[in-house]
Design a protein that fits this description.
Oligomer: heterodimer
Number of strands of chain B: 14
Largest sheet of chain B: 6 strands, mixed
Shape of chain B: elongated
Largest interface: A-B, 21 and 28 residues
Bound molecules: adenosine-5'-triphosphate, magnesium ion
Strand content of chain A: under 5%
Distance between the termini of chain B: 49 Å
Radius of gyration of chain A: 19 Å
Number of helices of chain A: 10
Number of helices of chain B: 11
Order of helices and strands of chain B: EEEHEEHEHHHEHEHEEHEHEEHEH
Number of strands of chain A: 0
Strand content of chain B: 25-35%
Shape of chain A: globular
Helix content of chain A: over 70%
Chain lengths: 263, 305
Amino acid sequence: MSYIQYFQIPEMNRRLLKVWLRNKDVFMKNVKLNFLPPFLEPILYLLAMGFGLGAFVDEINGVSYAQFIAPALIAVSVMYASFFECTYGSYVRMYYQKTFDAIIATPLIIEDVIAGELFWGATRSTINALVMTPVIAAFGLIDLKYALLIIPFAFLGGLLFACIGMCFTAMTPNIMALNYPALLFITPMFLFSGTFFPLEVLPEPIQYFALAFLPLTHIVRVIRTLAYGSLELSLLSDVIWILLATIIFYILSMNLMKKKLIV
Amino acid sequence: MVTIDPIIQAEGLVKRYSELIAVDGVSFYVEEGEMFGFLGPNGAGKTTTMKMIQCVSPKTSGKLEVFGMDASAHQREIKKYMGVVPQENNLDPDFTVYENLRNYSRYFDIPPIEADKRIEELLNFVQLRDKKDSMTESLSGGMKRRLVLARALLNNPRLIILDEPTVGLDPQARHLIWDKLRFLKKSGVTIVLTTHYLDEAEKLCDRLVVMDYGKIIVEGEPGQIIKDQIGSGVVEVDNHPEIVECLQKSGSSYEVMGDIIVIYTNDPTHITDQLSMECSLDKMITRKATLEDVFLKLTGRKLRE
Ligand SMILES: Nc1ncnc2c1ncn2[C@@H]1O[C@H](COP(=O)(O)OP(=O)(O)OP(=O)(O)O)[C@@H](O)[C@H]1O
Ligand SMILES: [Mg+2]
């Protein structure tokens, strides 16, 4: 068994856009319902945690608790949107709806389908950031100076979680088993990535672990810095980390999926 | 002289799923404009063969050319001119009938206006116009199958692959599909189908093969196959040891199938006379030989997994 086969560079074809369009069309059929969570969730979180819980919390690094968690809410939503789209969503389309089978009976090939799914997942993340950023800004919790940069960054971060999710989708024996990565990977990340309290309060080894292995820490750092209205050179290391991880998981997810679906 | 190459050509085609050899070195060709059938018991390897022709399942070894192109190297080009009705319906439950077709037309780069025109025609063709805005979930089995057929025709294919197109349909729906297939054949489309309805294959197919355990066991025109394998007629009698003995003595070609004996013959009257005189038998049924007789003779009565 050679590991090289999991790292073959996949072909990328513009036809992946057709798969993206298919998912967009379905999304638009329920557009109001789909826009509700990213609109409502930050409001609820900010009310409960930012202003409710925040009343008992002193400032963190010179900002109010609400201001501290507001960017993290966007980061978490970026993670959730694409991860769940490319795990449960893709699995349902692949296994139950046989959508992939139908598509590959046309000039599209499986690489196009998976790439379309991944970019659609990233788009879901971007849409969430697009809705949430103004809502949070309306609470006065975002400095607008670099806020626009959050949107394209959400696409990159979303793509990373789409690719990671797709790897699990390729490996899971059934849909129930997707609960494991959701529970053991996504939920801890939701809590321990500098989202609701600064990473610095954790023991140092855990901090290093988080920075090395928890993608959300980097996404939180970038979005938080941008939301505070600054653009630091140190963000470059986070962006490079995310880029490299995205490339690796993109290639890996593609090869895992090909191995699963081409029999 | 212009030689017309076959639309599909397979030589020594093999498909292996880890331990199991699903298709075991089959060779066949399908000519342009032909209706070609694949018959065989469950698990014979029909769907596997269809999937290789559709370029979605890579062959293990052998040669497979579609439209004169290697199926493993030119998937996109081949699929562009091919329509597929898969064994299992895979309509998009997120879309209505119209949206299903509209969305599918995009995969073939059909421009929107052209697509709408074709969708209109195809919905008429498969008699689903009234259902245009229904969700696919709400369609009956026959309607779904017709919609899948319409979807397979969106790109004006030169070749259509149908894997059990009439499975689970009532006689009316089945006849409707047959009609449509005949019409398509008349307009020059090459059709490859698999089916378990042997009367269907006998009526529709110009040529067919019977597969079993991944191998082709017989190939030819339905009428010719029946003549070669069975003869023109069949006489059925109840199974009694004395009759078996009597038949053995006369050297007839027969098969014991449960509590009946099936006798294959080109001259049914001769057999019935012989049976009533020599074996003193009077309860006999004489009928035309069918493809079903061939099928059961060649693949046996045993149920497949
Ligand atoms: N993806 C797969 N992995 C492993 N084995 C498979 C796979 N697909 C089919 N097989 C096996 O290959 C053999 C041929 O299957 P195939 O689906 O081609 O049969 P078929 O002739 O279409 O049967 P049916 O009439 O039931 O549709 C069967 O033994 C089947 O179990
Ligand atoms: Mg089959």
